[in-house]
Amino acid sequence: MISADTIVAPSTPHGFGGLAVVRLSGNKSVDVVKKLIPSTVVSPLKNRYATTASVVAPSGEFFDEVVVTYFKNPASYTGEDIVEISCHGSPAVVASLLTYCVEYGCRMAEPGEFTRRAFLNGKMDLIQAESVASLIHSRSIDAAKLNTKLVRGALSNNLNLLRENLIKALSLIEYELDVSEEELSFDRIDEGRALLSSVKTSLDKLLFSYHDGRVISAGARVVITGKPNVGKSTLLNVLVGKNRAITNKTPGTTRDTVESHSVLGGVPVCFVDTAGLRDTPDPIETEGVGRSIIERDNADLVICLIDGLLYPIDNIDVKKLTVINKVDVLNKADLNIFLKEHSDVIPISALKEKNIQSLRGDILSKLLNKNFRSSDVYLTTKRQNVAIGTCLGYVNQAEALWQSSGSEIELIAIELREALVSLDFLLGPTSVDVVLDEVFASFCVGK
Amino acid sequence: MKHHKNNFDIIVVGGGHAGVEAAHISTARGLTVALISMDLSALARMSCNPAIGGLAKGQMVREIDILGGLMGRATDACGVQFKLLNKSKGEAVWSPRAQVDKRKYESYVSGLVFSNNLLSLVSGEVVGLGIKNNNVVSCVLRSGEKIFSNTVIITSGTFMSGVVHVGERKVFAGRVGEKQSSGLTRSLNNIGIRSGRLKTGTPPRLVRSSIDWSKTEPVFGDKKPTPFSYSTTKFNPPNRPCHTVRTNQAAHEIISDNINRSPMSSGDIKGVGPRYCPSIEDKISRFSSRPSHLLYLEPEWGGSDQIYLNGFSTSLPEDVQISALRKVSGLEKVRFFRPGYAIEYDFFPPSQLKSTLESKMVSGLYFAGQVNGTSGYEEAAAQGLLAGINAACFVNREAPLILTRTDSYIGVMVDDLITKDTLEPYRMFTSRAEHRLSLRYSNADSRLLKHTKNYMLLPGNIVSLIEKKLRAKTEALALLKHKIKPGGFSGETGVTKTTSGESFLKRPDAGINMLPKNYFNQLDLSFLPDWLRSEFFIDLFATIKYGGYISRQLKSIKKNQKNEHLTLPLSFNYKTMVGLSGEAKEKLSFVRPETLGQASRISGVTPADISVLLVRLRV
Fold first, then answer.
1. Among chain B residues, CA nearest to A6
2. Taking a C-beta distance cutoff of 8 angstroms, is the pair B178, B38 a contact?
3. Cβ atoms of residues A233 and A258 within 8 Å
4. Percent of the residues in chain A that have a pLDDT greater than 90, as a whole number
């Protein structure tokens, strides 16, 4: 379980703080620490113990008082020997410590290399490795919860169960093809059909979860568009709760897009304020309008802001929310008639912060397909979504064959094998031995 | 090489199904061979069930036949009942099987061996090998005599340190009634070849007259039998029935009550037995919900008084076997010729071999058959044949024959053997072959004929018959492009538009007999024997029916082919390779795969590891 290089990297972000952690992984970790902390030569590091010790600079001078913790392979994050050094939290201390480690034989780790080693040494599967990065970059508690669950293997477990059912269904067919006739044994092939339809249901559910999973894990982009001077920047400021965008009565104040992050009901949302859409001779504003259009096209949700009753309202779009601003200055009777005709238009006043809370709710329910529950399993990456979609395609073909005739089970087997292969991308390869193992375990095989 | 009394081109150790195929094909290539056996009266003995072929195995016998082997011919000559299995499923998984007269088979093959001028039979036990500079140079017999050759094929079966178990009784033997052989394992271990231990079992042999046949169910073969050999022309074998009986609760109870007297449960047997051929005690304890198991009464040879009780493999004590069986309807007064027994034996994990079946460690040394951890006559014969062909290539300094997962079941088997851990005796299944739609019993000839010709494995007349047949198939495929009017079909088809024969055959429920009567009139198949003529159309139909799937698979084969054959140097030091996972380092150093394809199939080697190797190869 040992890689050739021993790597080192700071594990805490750059900057000042009480403590900073520097982590070493590889077969030379302990040797490097012996040079760094001479006292560990006399009293060796104890596995899974934290020890206070002194780091001595190569010059022989005392450098820093630290706490070292040793995780002996294979019971460590990477599966290799890991030493974590908690030093004082100054960039200068961390930089020197890293320099010493490299001098004593470490290599600076590449981004994600600790997790890559964990994956290579079989400590986690791809889904878990992928989720580690997402967890680190999580911007909301619920996103972090979801990613933690993925790191712990919730999606992997779900997929493994699904794969087991596929293997079971395939094993029923393989039994028919490879054994049954020699033994004049009874027909259990129908059990396979039932298994397959349960697999199908799970795949459908997972595919449906991708939209929400992606939004919760990676966050959503909500773009505010509209004519100049309808109050887009004011709305952005109100939604994120800080004075982020410059607001002014002059139309065309916002020229470039302005982003601001916020968390909405557990979903990390990046609100984007854009330049008002209009033809203008100003080349800078024209560029800004172009950017507004790109933002609008890539948005998870567009808030189409209007400020009067004369705007034509487009057809309902799943990715669009039409909001009418400045209701505090509109004629109440006209507004009520307008809202009766356009029941999906949301009336607010950004300036007076009227109806903003309910707008937040509307945004959230547009972003998510269903109420987010952190107990559910979600797909969160494109890769997962493609793999599950491909798998479902094969399962559907298998089901169609199963319905059309009973005698072509060798073709159903091909589809099921392909379905299993499409899960390889997520779970690692399924060997044919697993299928045979299942055949031998479930059936009394052999004359 | 000159032929001295003690000096041969090739030495074959053992005269079972692997040994006789190896020896025969080597002499067919004009080489001198010494076949050394402890019992020359037991060549090609069918020591277990009296049947050849069956699911996946039948396909393999066809492959053996087209590559010049004996098994197909011998089975056609000695079969007493032929049946094409899986007929209710698609053509790709149809498999021919035959019940065989064991004694006739043994004497038929022995006859061929004895009459072979290039083959010298040596009675004796090989206890050691002479090795010089990693080359094999001689075999040492127990008598101290040495026989010289630079090419040796080990096919010593289950005889290596064999231990037979009947209940609490233990006998050191090869098969019941035959000696064990113990020196060779030690000698091979000494030169660094690893060995392991496996177990297999066999059922009791019953006295025919002690069975009440009126209480048994007869099972016949096909009325229109399917032979195994392309050289078979006139084929009119007997169709003798087997009979079945069923076990019952009373029998199961006796077995359960005495399960602790089985050497398997007492821990006396350490070898691992095959899961696909479980003992009756295993079946009853693992599948306790099944009220009964089917047993087959199979006659062992013509006029035989000895009946093979298929399905009742066991290592229980003889008294338990008898009293359990006497509860079975039809067997109330059964008597034994001999009880069932389990046998433990040494094998040499085949990951130590190249895909030619030559040792990676000692050049000129080949291994084939049960010594490689396989089970079954067909698996053994196929390896013997391949080892024989490649040993001959080694002698003649020709490029070896490498069969692949895409061209044959034999290729699948060899690839599995050299890349996978052998945890139980290996038996072929169709599910092991990812390309099974292309690996049909009916197209073994078209898959392998180029090798037959290249290595001159069959007489010219059979090769030209096959070539003619394959040309006819090309013609037939061209004829299938011809359009048929809706009314032109034979029988009710529901076709409403003019359509080609080919697209018609792709419809579910379509059959070749529904094409117009004169559709293939231009096709001359009169040169084919009757059976091969009907098989011609079966294969033609399968080619069309599976066409879409097969081309889909061909695409993925082509995609993988690029890296599949990239050669990995045997000298690669995996232990120090950066980026490989710990498990991959261990497995790759152990197996030392020849190609990237093989590496990718080793369990524990991940796609990430393969990318690391790929990068290594590109540097």
1. B578
2. yes
3. yes
4. 28
pTM: predicted TM-score of the whole model, two decimal places? 0.81
Give domain limits for chain A. 7-122, 154-212+378-442, 219-367
The percent of chain B in helix, strand and coil, each rounded to the nearest 5, is 40, 20, 40
How far off is chain B from A381, nearest CA to CA, in Å?
20
Confidence of residue A313 (pLDDT cuts 50, 70, 90): low
Interface of B with A in 506-535 (CB under 8 A): 508-509
Name the helix (H) or strand (E) containing B461.
Answer: helix B460-479
Looking at the structure, tell me whether residues B540 and B600 fall in a common domain: no
CB pairs under 8 A between A and B: 119
Please report the ipTM that was assigned to this predicted complex: 0.83
Q: Which of A27, A117, A171, A178 to mutate to test the interface with B (most CBs of B within 10 A)?
A: A178
Residue B337 within any structural domain of the chain:
yes
Q: Is residue B447 domain-resident? A: yes
Top pLDDT among B290 and A32 is at A32
- The token duo for B300 is 């062992």
Rounded to the nearest angstrom, the minimum Cα separation between A122 and chain B is: 8
Instruction: Compute CA distances B422 → A174, B367, B371, B397, B591, whole Å.
Output: 21, 15, 12, 31, 12
Work out the minimum CA distance from A319 to partner chain B, whole angstroms: 39
Q: Which residue of A has its CA nearest to B297?
A: A447
Tens of pLDDT, residue by residue over B501-531, are 999 998 877 888 899 888 998 999 999 999 9
What average pLDDT score do residues B449-455 get?
97
Question: For residues A13 and A359, which has the higher predicted lDDT (pLDDT)?
Answer: A359
Contact flag B508-A408 (C-beta cutoff 8 Å)? yes
Where residue A176 falls among pLDDT bands split at 50, 70, 90? confident
Sign of CA dihedral A120, A123, A125, A128: negative
Number of CB atoms found within 10 A of residue B130's CB = 16
Q: Residue B431: which of A1, A178, A424 has the nearest Cβ?
A: A178
Instruction: Give the residue numbers spanning the domain of B516.
Output: 468-550
CATH fold of the domain at A219-367 = Rossmann fold (3.40.50)
Q: Is the Cβ–Cβ distance between A117 and B579 less than 8 Å? A: no
Matching CATH number, A7-122, of 1.10.260.40, 3.40.250.10, 3.40.50.720, 3.30.1360.120: 3.30.1360.120
Q: CB of B453 within 8 A of CB of B82?
A: no
Edge-to-edge strands, sheet with A107-108: A50-56, A62-71, A82-89, A17-25, A7-10, A107-108
Task: Show residues of chain B in contact with A428, CB under 8 Å.
Answer: 606-607
Closest CB from A120, A432, A440 relative to B276:
A440
The residue of chain B nearest to residue A428, with distances taken between CA atoms, is B606
Measure Cα distances from A421 to A177, A264, B599 in Å: 20, 38, 18
What does the pLDDT read at residue A416?
93
Listing DSSP states for A135-199 in one string gives HHT--SHHHHHHHHHHHTTHHHHHHHHHHHHHHHHHHHHHHIIIIIHHHT----HHHHHHHHHHH
Say if residue A2's pLDDT is above 50. no
B502 touches chain A (CB under 8 A): no
pLDDT tens string A215-256: 887 788 999 998 888 889 999 999 988 887 888 888 777 778
Nearest chain A Cα distance for residue B280, angstroms = 9
Q: What mean pLDDT is predicted for residues A263-268?
A: 81
Q: Tokens standing for A31?
A: 């040797």
CA B187 to chain centre: 28
B289 touches chain A (CB under 8 A): no
**A189 or B462: whose pLDDT is higher?**
B462
pLDDT at B267: 72
Encoded tokens for A446: 């052999």
